[in-house]
Amino acid sequence: MQYFGILETKYEELFLTSSYLYFNKEDETITPKELKQLIKTNKDRKKNIAGTVFLYNPVVTPIGFDSNKFLLEQDFDQFDEYIELKAESYITTFKQAMAKQCQGKLVEIKNLFNLVEENIDASQLLMKFNADLETYNSSQNTEFDRDIMYLDAQNIIPTGKFVFFAWGEKINPKEFPYINDYAKLIYDRTVQMGKKVAFVYKKEKTLDGSIELLQFASPVQYSKYKHAINHSIKKSFESNPPVSIPYE
């Protein structure tokens, strides 16, 4: 499998604004230029993209660079173009889960927030995101550039036949209501469009309860449930399209 993405930078922050997993055929490797051909037109995208995965935010490093150092402090200059990224960390879970059913296909990765940051769920940051999303659809300025930080939730069209939600279990409607509204709009639009929706959820919360809370388990969760979540994600993709599976 190969992982491709477009990195952009603004105000000393790093953003991943587009990304795809490509599940190679046997003995096959593609280039960023070949990736662009696979998504060049709507017809190409419909033919070549199997589905979409929604994550919370990206933690990525281009191939050839140090994952333990901030990219903007390294000699990187390939912004605003597709490059190959390291398929590490949480991406390996999807690599293992989808390899069989998605061979020769792309899976688009979308993030609630495009900011490349490991500790994005700190309250100070979430307060900024929540304030931004309160004013997102107005003429007011947002702290983070709305075009490179956020998805256009009202007009989003997920690609492919399935949409797998894995943005985690930390959305809090009481503390951050506008983040909750933003996520809910994305989920509701996906369902309304007739996509095959799947996710992994905590068994005791129930499937309906997880939808109500918009809590869809993520392989990024470093908790005592990480192994169980990864196992359930892989089990979900034993079906084609994937199905919702509990973990416990």
List keywords for this structure.
248 residues, alpha/beta, eight-stranded mixed sheet
Topology:
Layout: E1 2-10, E2 13-22, H1 32-38, H2 42-48, E3 49-55, E4 82-85, H3 91-98, E5 106-111, H4 123-135, H5 146-149, E6 162-165, H6 177-192, E7 196-202, H7 207-213, H8 226-236, E8 245-247
Helix/strand-derived category reads alpha/beta
Q: Roughly what fraction of the amino acids lie in strands?
A: 15-25%
> What about the largest sheet?
8 strands, mixed
**Mean pLDDT level:** 93
Computed CA radius of gyration, to the nearest angstrom: 17 Å
- Total number of helices: 8
Strand order of the largest sheet: 4-1-2-5-3-6-7-8
The level of helicity is 25-40%
- Sketch the topology as an H/E string, one letter per element: EEHHEEHEHHEHEHHE
Distance between the termini: 29 Å
Oligomeric organization of the protein chains: single chain
Which stretches are low in confidence, meaning pLDDT under 50 for 5 or more residues running?
none
Number of strands: 8
